[in-house]
Design brief:
8-stranded parallel beta barrel, TIM Barrel, two-stranded antiparallel sheet, 387 residues
Length: 387
């Protein structure tokens, strides 16, 4: 058994014994009962991070290799989303290149599928003067995705949140964009716990009136909407909205606190998944979906439920820094050679947080090579003054 010294919250340390290697296969067929998108991270290139806070540098080979890992486990990919550090280190220029590269890679990969985030992050919110400014920014990104054959996820817009005067402005902007898109789109309602600049999205800070605005939008354009992802970290709100969606429009859970319950569903329905947590837990999640497809709900929950404690710690407030844990776990599992992020974002969490993620990942059966993970964690502890 592998052992490691880990810090505790009280400042002491403990000898922690790791579980055996992950029991979950590293390849799997796509399940046929839930549509699941993994929002994937980008791998930074530390040798080209000349000015990390200003100029992103991406290791494209490692970033694409990780997409193949997710595709090989049966996941679709939600590309260039919040998990890739959009608006928090990854600028539109690099996001556009990411979209171009991954769409080209998907075309050459049998069974690969993805949808791409289109937003307005090339437009600084303070520079937005009108709804037309916001629309033009959206149209530029939609045009780029569609030019390369991609499907659209309409991301939330900080600029729209700044200039919109009420629900009618959201309906006008989104309605125009949806009508212009070539195919069906996925809407994304990102809560302000993920991005404080989005407080009051859809024209209200209260859930009920905001939901009514979104439902009006969906009913008016149901033939052009595949589904909606809501990331509010509140299972009750998601279920309430899910039960009111028109036929043919699906709910994609973005709830990284309650996904097992929501995807498992109840006697009135279930959510599909579009989640950042699928990036680090993909092998376990794929195994859980295989159980669910086989009719083994107990087996589904036995695998997926233990990952929820990890996800809740990873996505704890300030929630927007969850990407640190996603990249940390990819490093522990050998999917990248270093623990650096674009924008130097890895510094947003501390060693006690990372130590807890290490324990919880191990207890969820997610560490592929415990010896490698222990070596890397020991090195990180030493860099943080933990002997």
């Amino acid at each position: 058994m592998v052992e490691i010294s880990l810090p505790r919250m009280d400042g002491s340390s403990e000898r922690y014994r790791l579980a055996p290697p992950s029991p979950f296969p590293q390849t799997a067929k796509a399940n046929r009962i839930r549509t699941v998108y993994a929002a994937a991270h980008v791998v930074a290139d530390p040798l080209n991070l000349v000015d990390p806070w200003r100029e992103p540098a991406v290791d494209w080979d490692a970033t694409l290799a990780f997409r193949h890992h997710l595709w090989g486990l049966g996941f679709k990919i939600a590309e260039a989303m919040d998990t890739s550090q959009r608006g928090m280190g990854l600028d539109w220029q690099n996001a556009a290149e990411l979209i171009t590269r991954v769409l080209a890679e998907a075309k050459a990969t049998p069974g690969a599928d993805l949808a791409c985030g289109a937003g307005t992050d090339q437009l600084a919110p303070q520079d937005a003067r009108s709804l037309d400014d916001v629309i033009r920014a959206y149209e530029e990104q939609i045009g780029h995705v569609e030019e390369h054959g991609g499907k659209i996820i309409l991301m939330a817009s900080r600029a729209l949140c700044r200039v919109a005067k009420g629900p009618d402005d959201y309906l006008a902007v989104y309605g125009r964009l949806i009508r212009q898109c070539r195919g069906k789109v996925i809407l994304h309602w990102l809560g302000d716990m993920f991005d404080p600049a989005l407080a009051g999205y859809w024209g209200s800070r209260d859930f009920e009136p905001a939901m009514e605005t979104v439902l009006t939008l969906i009913r008016d354009h149901a033939d052009k909407i595949d589904g909606i992802k809501i990331s509010l970290l509140d299972a009750g709100k998601e279920i309430t909205m899910r039960r009111r969606l028109p036929a043919g429009v699906v709910m994609y859970t973005g709830d990284d606190f309650n996904y097992a319950e929501l995807i498992g569903g109840d006697d009135q329905g279930f959510s599909h998944g579009l989640l950042g947590i699928f990036d680090p837990i993909a092998p376990a999640a794929a195994a859980a979906f295989a159980k669910l497809e086989a009719g083994d709900r107990a087996g589904f929950h036995a695998i997926l439920d233990p990952t929820v404690a990890l996800s809740r710690r990873l996505f704890e407030a300030p929630t927007q820094h969850y990407k640190c844990g996603v990249v940390f776990l990819a490093w522990l599992n050998g999917f990248q050679s270093h623990f650096r992020m674009v924008g130097g974002a890895e510094s947003a969490r501390g060693i006690l947080h990372y130590a807890d993620l290490f324990r919880l990942a191990d207890q969820s059966g997610l560490l592929i090579d415990p010896e490698l993970a222990a070596r890397r964690m020991t090195h990180l502890c030493a860099l943080n003054g933990v002997a």
